[in-house]
Amino acid sequence: MTRPLAPTKDHPLVRWTLTAVALGFIGLFLVLPLVVVFHDALGDGLTAALAAIREPDAIAAIQLTLTAAAIAVPLNAIFGIAASWAIAKFDFAGKGFLVTLIDLPFSVSPVVSGLIYVLVFGLQGWLGPWLAEHDVKIIFALPGIVLATVFVTFPFVARELIPLMTDQGRDEEEAAVSLGASGWATFRRVTLPNIKWGLLYGVLLCNARAMGEFGAVSVVSGHIRGLTDTMPLHIEALYNDYQYSAAFAVASLLALLALVTLVLKSLLEWHFAEEISAAHHH
Amino acid sequence: MASLAATVPSQRKWRNPSALPGFGLSFGFTLFYLTAIVLIPLAALVIRPLEIGWSGFAEILTDARVLHSLELSFGGALVAALINSVFGLIVAWVLVRYRFPGKRIVDAVVDLPFALPTAVAGIALSALYAPRGWLGAPLMEYGIRIAYTPFGVIVALTFIGLPFVVRTLQPVMLELGKDSEEAAATLGASRFQTLRRVVFPALTPALLTGTAMAFARAVGEYGSVIFIAGNLPGISEIAPLLIIIKLNENNYAAAAAIGVIMLAASFVLLLGLNLLQTWTASRR
Asked: What would the mean pLDDT of A150-167 be, rounded to a whole number?
């Protein structure tokens, strides 16, 4: 006699079908595009791919992307720590509204994120005439690219740390302070060790987005090759010039960054699930 | 004593007293940074259309090309979100309930659209679905064109939206456990009845939330779309691209007008999502 199925188990046929559909969908929609990037990068051979990455405009783009991320990510990390300290360790009115405002940049279109800075700092913007008079360039220059990057990655660290620090409460900090520790010492020796993995997790995601941002940066960059083109913009320029293999060669660098980010992110989730935000327990 | 004071709610004060230092500094910096980076620039966008007045604003937005681009961005995002709600539900269910080799890797791969820069996704999808691409060529034999049509837009928006649905559903499915299903089965419900009347209703708020998040992200998406879309005005041109075109024509007013509409949509969606999440929390 066959054993009846457990009431909470799906029929094997259902199980196999759903698994096949899920894996098929992921393979077709997520994995295949990634494979194409590496395959087409080698379209003209490995030597050509390496040459495309070492070419001066590509190097300039890589340097610009690294510079923008090196400024934007620490700024947003400091902001994330400050915001989560204020929100998680104190009670004040309007907290929910403040958290919504911090999350706001996530729901704004990347292009709109760039547009707002053009409307402030561009030639027809609020401060445009004054900036032109004093010979300060923000739009079509590094400051604009950094600002757009800061905006699109604004909530990453804060939204990791706020729930984590709220969960952890204030008892440990209050104990440290009542034993005579200064505020700074309390933060460095009590809070920071508690949030370090969550902070790293937020910084990791923030960095991936900062280096890969395209729409917002596209609006403020001005697309001057070798000067204001970041890596994603350089990829676009190559692609529109029909230099497909070169475009995919540079793209494969960003795809590698994405893969490394995913691996590190998964490792953090597997090993420190309790020490990063409660939202990531798988 | 200090911690006791901190937990006593105060009726009159805006902020409860606390034993911890650093509120002024951290709160002050938070407000300053938020205002400088987010609020003032957004205000610059919201105020801009006021300069041209209602009639000028309406004139820009009723232009056929602008209207079509908005229709495509919102319509395409809706279709993509619906596709993701179906497949995201299946993917989440398979990842939470079934065991198979390589499951952890598949789970990690779901986040690929979050990690892969949109321009990279854009050229990859374009290469895949182009008439001579790996998927484009076989589809062409059946007379289906994806690249350079509105379908291409939907494909790109589906790519970027999937993780929102899966990641919103997974924790709810895990928390759901099997108790209620066992109870339903004990009471004589068939497996199908249990799924339809017990499991699905419990997942509905999270499914709606994830779908709304995928929609919100897709409406404003730019990088992954423009390469595969072909950007034919009136056919496959999305609203964010039209903003950039208007900016390049030095038509700030039109760029701002379209931008304000997109921003308003973001606000409405954010508000709706907050309500949804409150509802989800109350259902747990």
From this structure: 95
Per the CB < 8 A criterion, the answer to whether B221 and B278 are in contact is no
Rounded Cα distance, B268 and B272, in Å: 6
What is the C-alpha to C-alpha distance for residues A171 and A173, in angstroms, rounded to an integer?
Answer: 6
How confident is residue A124, by pLDDT bands cut at 50, 70 and 90? confident
A-contacting residues of B 143-162, CB under 8 Å?
Answer: 158-159, 162
* List of chain A residues whose C-beta atoms are within 8 Å of the C-beta of residue B174: 281
- Interchain proximity B116–A124, CB inside 8 Å: no
Distance in angstroms (rounded) separating the CA atoms of residues A231 and A211: 8
Greatest extent of chain A over all pairs of C-alpha atoms, in Å? 90
Distance from CA of A275 to the nearest CA of B (A): 17
Kindly tell me if the per-residue pLDDT of B12 is higher than 80. Answer: no
Selecting from B117, B159, B263 the residue whose C-beta is nearest the C-beta of A214 gives: B117
Read out DSSP for A7-43? TTSPPHHHHHHHHHHHHHHHIIIIIHHHHHHHHHHTT
pLDDT tens for each residue of B156-168: 999 999 999 999 9
| Domains along the sequence of chain B with CATH | 53-282 (1.10.3720.10)
With a CB cutoff of 8 Å and minimum separation 6, the contacts of B80 are B154, B157, B158, B161, B214, B215, B218
- The residues with which A92 forms a beta bridge, in sequence order, are B15
Within 8 A by CB and 6+ apart from A210, the residues are A68, A69, A72, A73, A149, A152, A153
Report whether B20 contacts A89 (CB < 8 A): yes
Q: Do A124 and B42 touch (CB under 8 A)?
A: no
Answer positive or negative: Cα dihedral of B199, A278, A165, B214.
Answer: negative
- Number of Cβ within a 10 Å radius of residue A257: 20
- Report the percent of chain A where pLDDT is more than 90: 88
Contact A83 B30 (CB under 8 A): yes
pLDDT digits (tens, 9 = 90+) for B123-133: 999 999 999 99
Strand partners, B15: A92
Q: Do B186 and A7 touch (CB under 8 A)?
A: yes
Residues 6+ apart with CB under 8 A from A242: none
Residue type, A27: G
Global ipTM = 0.93
Identity of the residue in B94, B222, B244 whose CB atom sits nearest the CB atom of A19: B94
Quick one: tokens of B202? 């419990």
Distance separating alpha carbons of residues A246 and A40, to the nearest angstrom:
9
> In whole angstroms, what is the distance from residue A39 CA to residue A174 CA?
56
Between CA A207 and CA A171 the distance in angstroms is 32
Write out the two tokens for B30.
């938070």
Chain A CB within 8 Å of residue B138 CB: no
Helix (H, G, I), strand (E, B) or coil at A123: coil
In chain B, what's the furthest Cα-to-Cα distance? 78
Nearest Cα residue to A8 out of B175, B169, B173, B179: B179
What pLDDT does B283 receive?
67
Token pair recorded at residue B245: 């075109």
